Amino acid sequence: MHIPDGFLSNKMWLALDALSGASILYAARRLRLEASARIVPLMGVLSAFVFAAQLLNFPVLGGTSGHLVGGALLAILLGPLAGFLTMATVLIAQALFLQDGGLAALGANIFNIGAVTSFSGYGLFRLLAGSPPRERRLAWAGFVSGWASLVLSAVCCALELGLSRAIPLEVGLPAMAGYHAIIGFAEGGLTAGVLVFLVRVRPDLIKGTSDLRMGLADWAVALGFVALPVLVLILAGSSALPDPLERLLSSAGAMTEPRNDAGDLLSPDRYPEYLRAAAILVVGTALVYLVARLVQGRSRKS
Amino acid sequence: MRHNFLDRYAGLDSPLHALEARTKLVGFLALILGVLWIPAGSNLIFFAYFLLTAVLMGISQIPLGYIVGRTLAILPFVVLAGLAAPWGDHFEGVRLVAIVLRSILSLLFLILLTSTTAFAELLRGLRKLGCPKILVLNLGFLYRYLFVLTEEVLRMRQARDCRRVGRAPALAEFKLLGAMLGTLLVRSFERAERMYQAMLSRGYDGDLRILAPRKFTWLDLGFLAGVTLFIVGVRP
Lengths: 302, 236
What we know:
The complex is a heterodimer of chains A (about 300) and B (about 240). Chain A is elongated, with a radius of gyration of 23 Å. Chain A is about 70% helix and about 0% strand. Chain A is built from 11 helices and 2 strands, in the order ααββααααααααα. The longest helix of chain A is centred in the middle third of the chain and has 33 residues, at about 170-200. Chain A is mainly alpha-helical and about 300 residues long. With about 240 residues, chain B is mainly alpha-helical. Chain B has helices spanning about 15-20, 20-35, 45-60, 65-70, 75-85, 95-115, 120-130, 135-160, 170-200, 220-235. At the A-B interface, helix 1, helix 2, helix 4, helix 7 and helix 11 of A face helix 2, helix 3, helix 5, helix 6 and helix 8 of B.
């Protein structure tokens, strides 16, 4: 689900980078004003926790495996702002350590996997869990918010890729939403499992986060986060995009379009041409690589 | 567990490694932006960028197998895009090829950036470029405690595997995983509390202090000038 660079249109990733950057700055400022310094090591260790928890994976259909994403869980435990910031940290680290997701597309990944999961998970949990929640209700609220947060995040990912005209919405949306609706059971189950465990073992941890509750202004911001993609979804309809929206979104990306893509590019008589281009690319690149490597190795030894 | 698997090639000795983190962050980001704005179908520009990555990869001395393995990470997206393309309203092969080439090139630049720079230096560069302090602190903690918590997970997994045979039914399995994650979470909370006490007693005042970084040298200036010239020179 981490989108690499190149798949989003330039307008799309610029907008999402701006959105994510602004919300990180906002969350950082709010936390500095409100929270005690205690939250700093806590967020740091919990981001390492998310990294480590992803080692505990479980088999899903057909040989792949899934693991906890953790956005909803962190938002429930830390409050949405600190949860979001922690997830943003994890995503930045995944891009920089593991090249999981692109650098320009980082904003999009922070939006999908950080913001959408944290804010939707937190909102749903608040709606569903009473206060103080009883164990069964807590488990259900945790399950639903974990599941829904993951599906929403996949829907956003598919929408972005579809609107960028990289992966058509007709295929991308059902594929991603469907896959994550299945994986989501695990995310929901684990969120619920951890919450139930914590309520039994350290109930203070669940209650202890109430001082980081969101104010009205934060809710307005969060609503913007949730409303924006939903609005796009409604405007876009379920299957096909209406013309005005599509024109609006592709007009700025027009400079990346081919100027004139007429002619049948897939006809077999063009294959030799493609093969030649690919061969030149591979051989040329390999030659230059070898020369650079040898020259550098020589200069180091001398 | 090998503790240096994230900074595996950051200790090599090459001109790219000698650059300052800020220089590399700015330079490679500019190159990635340049890649993302290559129009579809302009083969010469793609070729020029591939030659540049080849030169940089050669200079960096990072094993080719590692780079190729890392590049395979985008394969699922390529496959999905390729399979789904015929269902789109306007199927354009040139666009699809351009998307794949752009993503390969940006990924190569990202790999070059991150594997020639030690993580601590990268953080330093991010902070100096104006990244919020709390985020840089978080990343620093993540880096320091990743290994501690990972070892904790591995120990817990070993303990679980020692005490059972086979797998439990799905629901029980989830309860077990939930409890393990919960235990890990409780331990993380407690560790954070201890860390906070330790930080306070060592004079933590919310500020981030950084030891002398690499200096900005003529090499950095040359790199940035070269990147600028390249991007301007091969622009569409």
